[in-house]
Amino acid sequence: MEKVMITEEDLAQQFTLIIEQAHPRAWKLLNQCYVKVLNSKSKGVYIPHAKYIRIYCPDRLIAAIVAEKNLLIEVAEYLGLVEVVCVNATNLLHDPKSQVKKVCPQLWLDLQWIVTQNQEL
User: Fold this and answer.
1) Is this model's pTM higher than 0.85 or not?
2) Dihedral of CA 22/26/32/35: which sign?
């Protein structure tokens, strides 16, 4: 039997698909954010099979996303993810100490995109 590897991208897509289909109010918010699944670390060491979801939100949406956090945690746990972390993308991009642009330029560009969109709640 061939072993199939589920990638972090697959998990992020499954997470967003469940939210989109089952929770339209939360999807309206999440659709304006950047969702990424990452491996968990403890004291700098990766924990095998412990993945969490990080949701990068524009400043204008962070409070609304945090208000939906229990629902987001429920869906994440259903997929075997251990945690949901909400990050204010606007603050991250404006932080002079942030290394996002240098370390992960594609993420930096994606965050620039979500922060500059003027979609309504």
Assistant:
1) yes
2) negative
